[in-house]
Amino acid sequence: MASFDLSLEELHEYRSGSAEPEGFDAFWSKTLQEAREYDLDARFEPVDTGLETVRVFDVTFAGYGGHPVKAWLTLPAAATEPVPLVVEFVGYGGGRGLPHEHLLWASTGRAHFIMDTRGQGSAWGGGGGTADPVGAGPAFPGFMTRGMDAPENYYYRRVFTDAVRAVEAARSHPSTDAARTVVLGASQGGGISIAVGGLVPDLVAVAPDVPFLCDFPRAVTLTDRHPYREIGLFLKTHRGRTQDALRTLSYFDGVHFASRGSAPALFSVALEDQTCPPSTVFAAFHAWAHDDRTIEVYDFNDHEGGGPYHEAAKMRWLRSYA
Length: 322
Known about the structure:
Pfam families: AXE1
Distance between the termini: 37 Å
CATH class: Alpha Beta
Domain Acetyl xylan esterase: 1-319
Order of helices and strands: HHEEEEHEHEHEHHHHEHEH
Protein name: Acetylxylan esterase
């Protein structure tokens, strides 16, 4: 599929029309305050993986509602003092997988913490192991419309809270340098990293790749590819609920978290990406509050984005921050 969105020149000028909801900051402050009423209870169990160059820990910590969330922490085996920390969030449908799937960042001398996404982990990769014990009203299959009747009930309220708590859990390990924490991820993981970048004020860098969950009003009317299409199909059945749905989604729109981003950021975008349309990525990029922001553009790629080329770009970029 050739480019289908705005031209690159227009993308550089595009700004989102997504309206920030009233009480956005209060909503998230209250959400995180409630989550922190539960003991973080971060537990790190050593795992014998057969890998010689890294040490791996099976992690459990308390996320939203005190619910147990799983993760892996991978450390360079030779590290004798705290090392910079990379916290990673995964794409839609995936889970934390298996430890040997995630060796890049520990190979650069950093600690790597990869969070399971509650309720997911059964669509690709090595799977996940974190339940989502919260029920919801009627929803279209998938995760995008679960609890969409109100911001308090929406699925991503739980996920974004888990992600903030993941940073806190990762920082609690004595081998990680909390002062040099980076968050990153691709697709859904990129959207989560933008949210965390807006909710955690003392990160040193944020790197969202082809991020999902941005500029909802445009995304749901521009692409008919899943997962955004889940929202359209829900509203196709539940006629007349569009404005209520968009109000709920506005509390989770990456554009509004980006406007609170307080760390340097490296975005990536693919101009043939129909899953996360380029204009929605540029919307979050242009909203990013920190002056030190860069976007890598992959002209002829779909949702795979820059792939290994962008991994190399991130490694070069992060040398300046962590």
